[in-house]
Here is the input.
Amino acid sequence: MNLLRQLCAIRATSGNEVVMTSYLLNYIDREKKNWASKPTILFGDGLQDSIVLIFGKPKTAVFAHMDSIGYTVRYGNQLVRIGSPHNKEGDLLVGEDQKGNIECEFKLGKDGELTYDNIRPIETGTTLTYKPDFRETDDFVQCCYLDNRLGIYVALKLAETMENGAICFSCWEEHGGGSAENIGRILYEKYHLRQALICDITWVTEGVKHGKGVAISLRDSGIPRRSYVNRIIEIAKKHQIPYQLEVEGSGGSDGNSLQRSPFPLDWCFVGAPEDNVHTPNEIVHKNDIKAMIQLYTYLVREL
Here is the structure.
């Protein structure tokens, strides 16, 4: 879990993914010699801070978003949400401005105003994230930003054995999306790719539980094409991978961005469920992580 611990400690909110981008490019450059197939790396012009890895002749793309929720310092001691963090009085926030490193407390001000408590004013525009506290037991991992550092972790594990496929590290997912649409266009026009998997983390609910397997989402605020989702379910059954079916009426992912694009790209959200969503204490069962990696390995080979 050391790689996951490192990923959770990286501060990379929506719009400020560049630190994660740099980390991943260095990681890929260092580790690719050990992978089964050497990828073509797409980065830079036309992709902003996103990264796309092309292995062999890709048929299926795996999308894992790099960004997290957090806060932007406004004026005085005011904060503005990035995405949808769940606010709790006393949460520890960290960041950095031109005056140095920051560790402060989240506070609710007058009329529910979002504020921070720090020994000095923080420069306007500074991004703040939860202070990481990585915890591991025999059954669970817990930290801030398992959504979606765990998705990145699974994608990097998948890269070790991938021979044909694409892995896409996208931006802005937590704050409206947009990066995935651009990546989808490139994959469709240049590589004639028409199907995607959303490697992200979902919620523990009354119908999706810890330790019962990876969640295959039939719908959230977006609805994927059912015939495509059925193929995914059949592959999970064939290889006896523990899975759960998810049905929600809200929430979304890079899949929604792909569905809004003008390109005929099938997609399905496949991810482990977590509790304490968008808090410093997100928690995921290790068996669900294992099932997620196993299912993705088969999906990129057989879809």
In short: The chain has two domains: 2-68+135-302, 70-130. The longest strand covers residues 100-108. The chain has seven helices and 19 strands.
